[in-house]
Amino acid sequence: MSMAKKAASGGTKNGMVVVADQQQGHKNCSSYAFQMPLHYPRYKKADYETMPEWHVDCLLREYGLPVSGDLESKRKFAMGAFLWPDQY
């Protein structure tokens, strides 16, 4: 079967073709491949300062950034990564 037919029959996973998973025999969705999100986060400094930890963790994970440390350090890291210097 050609690569195009495999891609067509395999569908997509997180916007990516599942051909590689099929070739390796993987059929679950637990495999992870980083994909840059479509939009840049549009939060303000005040949003980051009040954002719950689970939300900060999800945001950092979504962009492939480290999710370690306490809540305050995660918030500071997120603000440094996503805010322009004049915004904080």
From TrEMBL:
Residue ranges constituting the DUF7722 domain according to the UniProt record: 40-85
Pfam families in UniProt: DUF7722
InterPro entries from the UniProt entry: DUF7722
This protein's name: DUF7722 domain-containing protein
Natural source organism: Eleusine coracana subsp. coracana
Highest classification ranks of the organism: Eukaryota, Viridiplantae, Streptophyta, Embryophyta, Tracheophyta
